[in-house]
Design brief:
This protein is an alpha+beta fold. The chain is built from 3 helices and 4 strands. It has one domain. The chain is 28% helix and 40% strand. Strands 2-1-4-3 form a 4-stranded mixed sheet, with helices on both faces. The longest helix is centred in the middle third of the chain and has 10 residues, at 32-41.
Length: 81
């Protein structure tokens, strides 16, 4: 079975690595395996955000566990070019 991840986009500050804004859902889904391949090729832009807080994941999934989201990161200095 292919695991699919919801795709989000975020902007980050290159010098600190901190997100400038919160990730925004795109409404798209991507294959986890395909995303991991992209992460190996370009880890600066293709990332996976993981939520592991038991209380939070229980509220979001109806049970415990780990929630993963695919995140495409655009760096703030890239937007200026």
């Amino acid at each position: 079975m292919i695991k699919m991840l919801e795709l989000y986009k975020a902007t980050a500050e290159r010098e600190t690595g901190f997100w400038v804004d919160l990730p925004v859902a795109t409404g798209q889904v991507v294959s986890r395996d395909e995303w991991l391949t992209r992460m190996k090729e370009d880890p600066e832009h293709f990332q996976i955000a993981t939520l592991t807080d038991e209380e939070l994941t229980a509220k979001l999934t109806g049970g415990g566990g780990i929630i993963e989201r695919a995140v495409f990161v655009a760096w703030s200095d890239e937007k200026l070019q």
